[in-house]
Amino acid sequence: MSKPEISAKDQDRVKFAFDVYDFEGKGTVDAYYIKDLLRAVNLNPTNKKLEAFDVPAKKGERTIKLDEVFPMFATIKKDKDCGSYDDFVEVLKLYDKEENGTMMSNELEYILMNLGEMLSKDDTKLVMGECCPPEDEDGCFEIIPFLKKLCEKE
């Protein structure tokens, strides 16, 4: 089956991620993992965009094959509403009041819980705990290490 608009490199990346989520080696992935699979290939789909793929609420409801993932990948990859690493850098620079590459932790917490696709308090704590470098004495953290960890950009 042809995979239009997807480079050979992207096809390989999608297949690799698919194989990781094909826990039983049967050539299928539980559709519950669609969002994780797409994020594993460095895409950042919004929850609203993921709704179009009818992601089940529970594991075991349906499975998908590799050929079903390629169109999902192509759709999300060409979506301009998905923020990229560089977009996030530019946005968070707005909160760098000292112009030294840092921002206040409480401002990030507010952003995550109140803007865009809002996170719950627990999810916000998880993201900040996993991705934020240690705060300085003023309650600020370095933006770039946070974003690199968040976006897993090497």
Give the averaged pLDDT, no decimals.
Answer: 88
Oligomer: single chain
Q: List low-confidence stretches.
A: none
Order of helices and strands: HEHHEHHEHHEH
Main β-sheet, spatial strand arrangement:
1-2
Radius of gyration: 18 Å
SS element count, helices: 8
Q: Decide which structural class fits the backbone.
A: mainly alpha
Strand content: 5-15%
Could you give the count of β-strands? 4
Give a quick account of the main beta sheet: strands, pairing sense, barrel closure: 2 strands, antiparallel
| Helix content bin | 40-55%
Overall morphology: elongated
Distance between the termini: 33 Å
Can you put this structure into words, describing what you see?
- The protein is mostly helical.
- The chain has 8 helices and 4 strands, in the order αβααβααβααβα.
- The chain has helices at 8-21, 34-40, 47-51, 66-77, 85-93, 105-114, 121-131, 143-151; strands at 28-30, 63-65, 102-104, 140-142.
- Strands 1-2 form a two-stranded antiparallel sheet.
